[in-house]
Amino acid sequence: MREVKSSKAYKDKAKAASAKPAALGEDIDLSAFAASAEEQPYEADPSKLPAKAKEQMMEAGVILEDTSQRSGTYIQMDNTPVHFSSQQEGVEVMAISQALEKYDWLSDYWWQAVAVDTDKYTAHVELSQGNGYFIRALPGKKTIYPVQACLYLAKAKLAQNVHNIIIAEENSELHIVTGCTTAFGEEPGLHLGVSEFYIKRGAKVTFTMIHSWNPEIAVRPRTGTIIEQDGLFLSNYVLMKPVRSLQMYPAAKCVGENAIVRYNSILMAPPGSHMDIGSRVLLNAKGAKTEIISRALTTGGTIIARGYIEGNAPEVKGHLECRGLILQEKGVIHAIPELKGNLAGIDLSHEAAVGKIAEEEVEYLMARGLTRTEATATIVRGFLRVDIEGLPPQLDAELKRAIEASEKELM
Amino acid sequence: MLEIKHLNVAVEGREILRDVNLNIGTGETHALFGPNGSGKTTLLMAIMGFPRYQVTKGKIIFKGKDITKLAVDERARLGIGISFQRPPVVRGVKTRDMVSAAMGGEGDEKSIAKLAERADLTEFLDRDINYGFSGGEIKRAELLQLMAQRPELTLLDEPESGVDLVNIALIGELLNELLEKGCPIRKRKCMGLIITHTGHILEYVNVRTGYVMLDGRVVCQGDPHEILATIKEKGYEECARCVK
Ligand SMILES: Nc1ncnc2c1ncn2[C@@H]1O[C@H](COP(=O)(O)OP(=O)(O)OP(=O)(O)O)[C@@H](O)[C@H]1O
Ligand SMILES: [Mg+2]
Description:
The complex is a heterodimer of chains A (411) and B (244). Chain A has two domains: 7-359, no CATH class; 360-411, no CATH class. In chain A, 18% of the residues lie in helices and 40% in strands. Chain A is built from seven helices and 20 strands. In chain A, a hairpin with a 2-residue loop joins strand 1 and strand 2. In chain A, helix 1 packs across helix 4 (120-128) and helix 5 (359-366) packs across helix 6 (372-384). The longest helix of chain A has 18 residues, at 393-410. Chain A is globular. The longest helix of chain B has 20 residues, at 224-243. The A-B interface holds A 323, 358, 360-361, 363-372, 374-375, 378-379, 381-385 and B 48, 50-51, 71-73, 76-77, 81-82, 84, 87-88, 90-94, 97-98, 101-102, 104, 128, 145, 149. Bound molecules: adenosine-5'-triphosphate (ATP) and magnesium ion (MG).
């Protein structure tokens, strides 16, 4: 695998920011984690990956036994891409290092949706070159099956660094499902992931990310999306497993007229988990629209659920909905919805509600014959069931199954 | 058979019902009249067994069994069902889920769809229960759940309030099915207790006995049509005077 090429200017900026703490979240001591791990062998047939890894990946929605329902696959273990392939003509799936070799123009997208000097984590990703994926749909190419990507943390005490670039060319349609998970159960690890999405005119991208970490892992994703005219970006995030500390605040910028962004997040925090998760949208072009929906459920952990919508152009519309459910006494949910309008004629709104399950609702279901436990489970299931518009049915079903499986563990 | 004996009910420490006595024979439907705040809903909620409504004295006996201390869900499974005056919205829980729960989890897609069609609620199956429903839609959704549950004792809290004329006919039809109007009287098992202000529902459902509740007490019992006519003509003041 060749080195990722990127200009000296980025390296300099990264060096200057290498000690810069993030705006939000606990400060992670990067020196506590190894910067590199041994290379893993490439595997042309992903079904031949170790059984345990496959099982873990499956929990995060990555299917390797039979990839007939996938239009491409990318698997990275620690900092090595161990498999990448495209199963569909018009869809490119490869390691970012290889893509940089192949396409000179790719440097035009490098650090354009996320700033390299955002904080020490982005700087670390630039300086340590841990690879990542490149997924691209060619102009007009519409896929039905999703491309799947897995970022797998195999070695404990390692900092996994990835830099991903996703490009949907004009009028293309691309579905991606990403699973991030780990091999080890109780040891510390760090995942740093930069993802830059470019949604061109009339293109549609759905991005479904399922995280399945462990109680000792710290995670700092850094994601930026730029959406052009008539483009659609639909991002779904599911975190139902314990994690020590996860902070992310992905940002999408609608730069073209009538661009649309929708974020759905489903978060569950068991005791010991701390998550600070939000979505930020800038509506910078006429008629752009967004909807940010989050469901946060705690059984003892802490969730800070943020949302930010800024309207900077005429006729934009945005809605933020954050609902939190506290199932155990010690859980904390802090909803922080923010709206900023910079001119007249925009329409931004939000609703936030945090509380425990209403006794009146439980009793309503009990009056139909459900036991208290069944009634509570039904309400929790309903709470976590977000109707996601625009996902292919099969992917929607996979997502619902993943959520239901974790929910059963919870109840 | 439902027997209510010397029942006192308190809500948040405040006594609302006092010495209520009432018997509904097997296969019979009775009606409950009374001004706002007189305690009608309180009585139904106490029969259903909601914990906020505390029985401080007396007994509720259903099919010969003392159910005064049973939990709501146990009473539901014994065969008591209720249509709420103001049911809560439960976000995320679909009408379909409620119908399926009422069927004891045994409802298949087809039978759920069939029932929904009868209540003219097909389009509502995949909506959050009661969320954004109109007054009449709420009433029909309540009946839909009862149709799925098929209780032996159906408690109906103003099933026709806020319902237009066409839909009252539909509600009457569904109620009659629940209360087995088509079945010969001596074979009827289902019982009903209906709270009504307007009495419109009496035009559809066979109601044998009416009660007037004033200030937490049942003060009068008799032919429901006669009671309704008196209330319409002279108001509840007349009932109060008559009792004195
Ligand atoms: N949860 C409660 N907390 C406090 N007071 C209550 C509660 N529920 C009922 N009450 C009081 O008990 C009395 C009887 O109320 P109830 O709802 O039974 O009346 P109702 O006869 O059904 O009236 P309406 O015809 O208006 O529906 C009222 O004074 C009411 O304010
Ligand atoms: Mg009432």
